Backbone:
């Protein structure tokens, strides 16, 4: 992934870009009509305060992303990767991922913190978000058009046959790599052929449209409409449709709503209660007849009925049997990169983390499958509502 000067910015610079754009958005948003509900209290947001919370988002997302990357695809429930990790594996040596390699930044399963003044690397949990943020600022609009998205992708992302050489293993042959995966890679190929979103996520064109990609690229749109999910969903509608369709798109919208609502948590509640309140509010945006809502309800039920709230592994193992080995709630497992199985995994860390960002990241890192994605998502959301920047 190459995207001009953004690839060379450190975290502070990236945060400055995010902060600048979000401040400008308060001027631009009146062009979008808000639904008014006179029965709801008015929420007043301090811009200077929100700047710090936005800093917390980028910081939390990076810490959680690079911690979760240590175990990404180490354990995906196949014969070769069983058993799954447990709490006992925390601070033990990392194992190879399913593609046979270790991560370069840590050899131990533990929290990863880039030293102050260092540079956080880009990853698929952040890179497209940086591009969208740049495009929003460049075009001075809160709603990107299909053409603006296409041109932005083609400007800032290499076609794979023109990408720089990358050596996956020290003794392997260098190959060209643009660091796009799954549905994003297919969407990019379609854009190169002149196809515009939302056609880039049409299952007839993109067989990967049920993968996790849209969650990684769009959750931050929720922050551009603080406490207003309806506006957040308008802002993120087309970016989500770049790479996700049907249930995968609905799951991405769930995370957008969570990020939009993160600013409005009830400060009289405990962290655990705040987290659960956010999740249950976002649940209302899921269609009752589709598998994401049924997954949410089933995992929420299993968590509540578990008398040992430290035994998150029991719910993770339940998910493995219910959704990977067997088909339930309308979900058919095919791939560890799917939105569905990773949505289920993310709920385990969200519920059992009980509002503690460190515990949530820890559980997410150990849960399995595409473990850097749920951790990055919750790290960002938690970074907003606990003001993570004030701790770092």
Residues:
């Amino acid at each position: 992934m190459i995207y001009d000067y953004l690839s060379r910015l450190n975290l502070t610079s990236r945060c400055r870009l995010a902060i600048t754009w979000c401040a400008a958005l308060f001027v631009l948003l009146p062009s979008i009509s808000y639904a008014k509900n006179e029965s709801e209290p008015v929420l007043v947001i301090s811009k200077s305060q929100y700047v710090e919370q936005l800093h917390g988002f980028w910081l939390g997302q990076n810490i959680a992303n690079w911690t979760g990357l240590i175990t990404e695809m180490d354990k995906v429930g196949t014969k070769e990767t069983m058993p799954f990790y447990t709490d006992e594996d925390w601070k033990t040596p990392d194992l190879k991922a399913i593609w046979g390699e270790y991560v370069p930044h840590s050899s131990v399963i533990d929290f990863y913190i880039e030293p102050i003044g260092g540079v956080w690397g880009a990853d698929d949990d952040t890179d497209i978000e940086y591009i969208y943020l740049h495009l929003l600022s460049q075009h001075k609009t809160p709603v990107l058009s299909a053409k603006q998205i296409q041109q932005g992708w083609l400007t800032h992302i290499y076609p794979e046959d023109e990408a720089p050489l990358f050596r996956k293993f020290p003794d392997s042959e260098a190959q060209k790599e643009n660091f796009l995966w799954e549905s994003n890679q297919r969407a990019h190929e379609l854009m190169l052929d002149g196809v515009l979103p939302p056609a880039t996520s049409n299952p007839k064109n993109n067989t990967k449209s049920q993968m996790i990609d849209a969650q990684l690229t769009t959750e931050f749109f929720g922050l551009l409409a603080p406490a207003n999910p309806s506006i957040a969903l308008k802002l993120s509608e087309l970016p989500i449709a770049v790479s996700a369709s049907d249930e995968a798109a609905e799951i991405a919208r769930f995370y957008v709503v969570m990020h939009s609502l993160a600013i409005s948590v009830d400060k009289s509640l405990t962290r655990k209660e705040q987290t659960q309140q956010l999740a249950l509010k976002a649940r209302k945006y899921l269609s009752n007849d589709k598998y994401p809502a049924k997954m949410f309800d089933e995992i929420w039920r299993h968590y509540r009925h578990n008398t040992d709230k430290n035994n998150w592994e029991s719910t993770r193992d339940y998910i493995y049997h219910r959704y990977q080995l067997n088909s339930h709630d309308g979900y058919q497992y095919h791939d560890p990169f799917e939105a569905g199985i990773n949505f289920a995994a993310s709920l385990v860390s969200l519920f059992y983390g009980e509002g503690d960002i460190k515990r949530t990241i820890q559980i997410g890192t150990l849960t399995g499958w595409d473990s850097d994605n749920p951790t990055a998502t919750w790290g960002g959301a938690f970074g907003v509502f606990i003001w993570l920047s004030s701790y770092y």
Q: What stands out?
A: Residues 1-21, 26-36 have pLDDT under 50 and may be disordered. The first strand starts at residue 165 and ends at 166. The chain has 14 helices and two strands. Residues 47-68 form the longest helix (22 residues).
